[in-house]
Task: structure prediction
Amino acid sequence: MDIFTQQLINGLVLGSVYALVALGYTMVYGILELINFAHGEVVMIGAMVALAVINALLGAGVDLPGLVIASLGLLAAIPVCALLGFSIERIAYRPLRKAPRLAPLITAIGVSIVLQNVAMMVWGKQYISFPAILPATRHQVGGATVTDLQLFIFLLSCTVMAALWLLVQKTRLGRAMRATAQSPEVAGLMGVNVNTVISITFILGAVLGAVAGVMVSAYYGLAHYYMGFMLGLKAFTAAVLGGIGNIAGAMLGGLLLGVIESLGAGYIGDLSGGFLGSNYQDVFAFLVLILVLTLRPSGLLGERVAERA
Amino acid sequence: MAMLLLLRHDRRAALAALLVVAILLAALPFLVNLGLGKTWVRILDFTLLYVMLALGLNIVVGYAGLLDLGYIAFYAVGAYLYALLASPHFGLHLPFWALLPLGALLAGLFGMLLGAPTLKLRGDYLAIVTLGFGEIIRIFLNNLNAPVNITNGPQGVNLIDPVAIAGHSFGQTWSVLGFSVPGLYLYYYLFLALTLGVIAVSIRLQDSRIGRAWVAIREDEVAAEAMGINARNIKLLAFAMGAAFGGVAGGLFAGFQGFISPESFNLMESIMILCMVVLGGMGNIPGVILGAVLLTMLPEALRYVGPLEQALFGRVVVDPADLRMLLFGLALVAVMLFRPAGLLPSTRRRREFDSSEAVLAQEQASVYDAHK
Result:
């Protein structure tokens, strides 16, 4: 039971980060039907910028509480990522909006390669460690251990997601976003500035990505120029699992994928009688994905898309 | 263009042109060796492998319109089959002519295995499932060394037998009439022959009943089914055929390289092959070949950036190894921005693209008229 609770908690924390990244994919997909393959790299840049600022502050001997320093790093990462998200859409996707569907996919891959290599040239090939400035108090919950950091990550993710939900459901901008997702042409006729809405969507996704990037590097204590690739892959999987284009689906998919992964890693050895080790945890995630999509071809919360008329 | 028309109408000119191309292709490794050195003959061999892979993926993505992000898995299946049955790992040494068809068959089976659960999925859902499938295969290859050692895990399989025809190993130089031909060249001719075979099959498929059925389900699955096409079988066939090409290329890769490990079959490789197909021009055979040649050679050519910097600025400003992939990424973006339908789009696709532009122009014109 202890292991179960522990893995469940770990899974929820990891899953909440996946969910934040998945939201970036799903919002863009909902509006443009485009897989923004460069999103994982935006997350990575967010983590790198924040770490650079944090390390610079510590190096300068600034005497502030750890949480404040980490927040300053995050505050520096957010505008950088927002600008990055905005520019990527402007340079690589907007000129191709009327092009065949796979063309923006290739530019996305190109942008992703460029960002990875720029990051490698700026910050080097080695792992950068996240300084231990955040409080690491441990709490006992039903036989499992929760650190302050885990609690903090989970709560911050939930707050950000709740804020996004309110933004999309309650504000004028949110209504414009939903209208654009349904039909850009009609939304345009109703006086929505579609290009602005698309730009804002990319910026929002990138900001969520920056938050996720900082949290994930704090959680693992590491950042690396290649970290965005795997994280992006997992988050995209989560978005598809929940039903891509659906905001609630991305949140559900992210949390679910995180939990499946941790539980899978914890139990796969017992389930298979020691035949399969925990290094099969990624297989587990993908198998669940394939199973879910076989039963529900448009994801857990995705709307059933009617056959093309 | 005029040249092409001339060739189409004048039989003798066409024959002469064919002869020139044949001689050029036959002499290519010698010319390349003279001009650029042995490394480039090796790159030439790899280019042919990638042409085969890209043509195989073209069947799935270009013809049938099924976005496959896990194509490298079939390459891996072919390569591992060859490696396990022709290396000291199990002590088996089956001949190459038996292993290639076996690899094609097994990869084709895996293609069907992937195709079966994904038939109902569309577009990007299919993409992520194929991606997951590719990753699953790679993770299994990486971990199947315990408790029973099948794939030798991350260390990979070593000392794989080189391809041998009629008792002659391609691992050694071949002397014929006092003329010595190194193994690298022999591989080139073997790969060239098989690539030409794959091209021939692709062309014949394109114009066949099956090829037209693929195009039909790509354009509109519902309408195609109404016309009596069995969408399920025809999709499975696309997956199986594409995968079989990948399996053959994989077997050749294992024999050529002599060593394989799961690292060679990661997601980035799948993505690269997809880039070759899309960048060159989906569904168009010359386009796909051009894409494969360009994307294999470009990263290699970019290795010369270092000496170039030296010549231009008198010193190395940026480490060329770092710059190489950066320039490669920029090239991908630039090409797609300037030629969104690919470098050499198929006529059908070009027509679609142009017509949607024309419709757009007309719509904009009419909106403008309304304002007046």
